[in-house]
Amino acid sequence: KLSKRLQLLHDLMDPGRNLADIGSDHALLPVACIQSGQAATAIAGELNEGPYEAAKRQVASSGLQAKIEVRRGDGLDVIEAGEVDTITIAGMGGALITNILERGKLKLKGVTRLILQPNVGEDILRKWLFDNDYVIEAERILEEDGKIYEVIAAVPGYFSHISNDEVYEPKLIGTADHVIELTSDELLKMGPFLVEQGGAVFVKKWEWEIDKIQKVLASLSKSDLPEAKGKAGELEQELKRIEEVLSCMQ
Ligand code: SAM
């Protein structure tokens, strides 16, 4: 059975896709996608020996060698352009996912859906998607085993029914008597769909961020460095905005 986190990636796919799961580890996602019909074929890509062997064992023990190929290599090096239409990358930092996409750009031709789950650095990834004209069509947030995860599904601009201008235009959130306007940068940071959906997990994530910022502020207040004041000012501003967003949701 898939974890809640991987199940969300599975559910954000359309049926019958040709999937590449990059950094597949035990190949749990490709196996589940073939078994459910979400994928017709799959490639499990792995950089490292141990997980690569684990993926091969998993595919063999599920008897799906005819439909899932396990390939060893860095990022999108393991696929040819045009070979797959859907790519999943989960369980890594946003910077690493961004790096894999940037380095493998030529392989993205013909790929109509990216489903990504950064552990941290979601803002870096959203910025890359935006700069490269990928439009986010869906976002999810979930909590599992004491951790909070975000999942982002994006499609190339030419393939999307909405545009990035629409996704990132300043957005009003809240209720009639308490509304705030979020800037494009704030939407890149918090997630254009997640801010609209709100919910307990979203609130919890940003309460944790507030805690982190307060800890940094406490240590900055003890610093004599000239930059400390400026940095503290910026963080206080950020803190205030996050609190405003949360106050619209409770
Ligand atoms: N995707 C699975 C999941 O979400 O449960 C596994 C996540 S695991 C934490 C990250 C995997 O990515 C590791 O197995 C690691 O070997 C692999 N990995 C890291 N960098 C990679 C790269 N550049 N290309 C392919 N795989 C990579």
From TrEMBL:
Transmembrane segments: none annotated. The keyword Coiled coil applies. The keyword Coiled coil applies. It comes from the Bacteria. Residues 225-250 form a coiled coil. InterPro entries: SAM-dependent_MTases_sf (IPR029063), TrmK (IPR006901). Keywords: Coiled coil. It holds the Pfam family TrmK. This is tRNA (Adenine(22)-N(1))-methyltransferase.
